[in-house]
Amino acid sequence: MFENIEFANPQFFWLLLSLPLALIWYLFKHKKEVASLKISSVRGFSVSTLASKLRPVLFALRLLALASIITALARPQIEDISTRTKTTKGIDIVMAIDVSSSMLARDLKPNRLSALKDVAADFIKQRPNDRIGLVGYAAESYTKTPITSDKSIVLNALREITYGELEDGTAIGMGLATSVNRLKESKAISKVIILLTDGVNNSGFIEPKTAADIAVEYGIKTYTIGLGTNGNALSPVTYNRDGTFRYGMRQVEIDEDLLKEIAEVTGGKYFRATDNEKLEEIYDEINKLEKTEIEEFKYYKYEEKFRPLILLAGALLLIEWALRNSIFKSFI
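The chain above was modelled as a monomer; its predicted structure follows.
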């Protein structure tokens, strides 16, 4: 009954200090008010010595009743708190992912694309109140999933992203333009594109700067990420006879000036990820930069628990009154 109990008026517990004072009064003062007679034998008197010894029980019952009343005055209660959250400023996010053959380079473990998918999945899980969509691009671009609040759909789509779905190449402008197209009708307070590439723009019929201007027109912020180590990386260079890639060392080329310009024009930020750890740090930073405002409503419900204590005090006083007027009547 008293689990998770809180007290609305705990100041009443100071009254408990009166209990030891009452006990002292009973031991030293009340004892003098009881008449006594010293005789050599009580054999001729009809006196119940056991009842006389149990007479302090009456006072104990009163003390217990008083303690129950004081505790009831402190108003014990159980507090039940329920919460409801409402997104007041949601964010719509499109993640534009480069799926060209260079994303199979092994400077990140096990390769760039797999490392990105792992980090991006964690990022998606940390955005439960936002809508997220996926765009893949190589020599052309396509929408893997439109913006949705169903994170299971986004995560499944992310796992399915792989090299070979599109003609090889790097069409940064196409990837950015397709992402803008996914967000231009959005009613969200904040619209964000996270565009990742590991190369230079060499395909597509939309220039990256043109796509960036369109993003500005629709109020879409773009964070750009250049993926790849500094120097050379073990990358696909040609095909083997069985259709698999043959790997060799290639210079890592990322058009950082272009990515910086896109980020600056749209009000975003450029990042460079040279290894798995840096990639994780970048997505963590973007996660902190783009905050969704959540309004939380708390509902309090109180269940009062003083009534059982009042009933207990009444029962103790009733028992004390009954004993005082029956068994102990001759000793009062």
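The first helix runs from residue 18 to 28.
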